[in-house]
Design goal:
The chain is built from six helices and two strands. The chain is mostly helical. The chain has a domain of 109 residues: Orthogonal Bundle (Arc Repressor Mutant, subunit A), CATH 1.10.10. The relative contact order is 0.09.
């Protein structure tokens, strides 16, 4: 069902503003630009992740940080920012919050003492496992209807887009 455009909700004569298409319609559908469609899909997935993780009190960026630290223990904040595609300042805030909650621990780098290496605590491992189950369910829904070969093709294409340099 289409939502009325904001101007069509105003009192007075009918507006000349067009009806806004819903996701999947017109330029928000298969006729749309690939970049826009990628962003639309990304926003939809992030919204679903926010809802799925909300009662665990974990945000999608916190989930990404927990995932990357779990996969690559010993990361610095700078490494984590590059891997998680988040700004260093954002990572610093997230790491601080996760350390205060007991999900992350840090220790000095054995050679470069000013660099702190991050690892999941037991609390962080349990939190990540709970989050992972929910996100895995979302990803299964995302891939529903795709054959294994189609899913592999989508994954290859997404990686190639990320690797392409200007």
């Amino acid at each position: 069902m289409r939502k009325p455009s904001p101007s069509s909700c105003l009192p007075g004569p009918p507006s000349l503003a067009p009806q806004l298409p819903e996701p999947g319609e017109a330029k928000r559908g298969e006729q749309g630009h690939l970049g826009y469609l990628l962003r639309q899909a990304s926003v939809a997935l992030r919204t679903r992740m926010e809802r799925a993780l909300a009662d665990l009190e974990v945000t999608p960026p916190q989930f990404v940080v927990l995932t990357m630290v779990g996969a690559y223990p010993g990361l610095s904040n700078a490494d984590l920012a590059r891997l998680s595609l988040l700004k260093p300042q954002t990572v610093s805030v997230i790491v601080g919050n996760l350390k205060r909650s007991g999900a992350l621990v840090s220790r000095p780098h054995p050679v470069h003492g000013r660099i702190r290496q991050l690892a999941l605590s037991e609390t962080g491992e349990r939190s990540l496992a709970r989050c992972r189950r929910r996100v895995d369910a979302l990803e299964r829904r995302l891939a529903a209807g795709l054959s294994a070969a189609e899913e592999a093709a989508v994954r290859r294409w997404l990686v190639s887009v990320a690797l392409e340099s200007d």
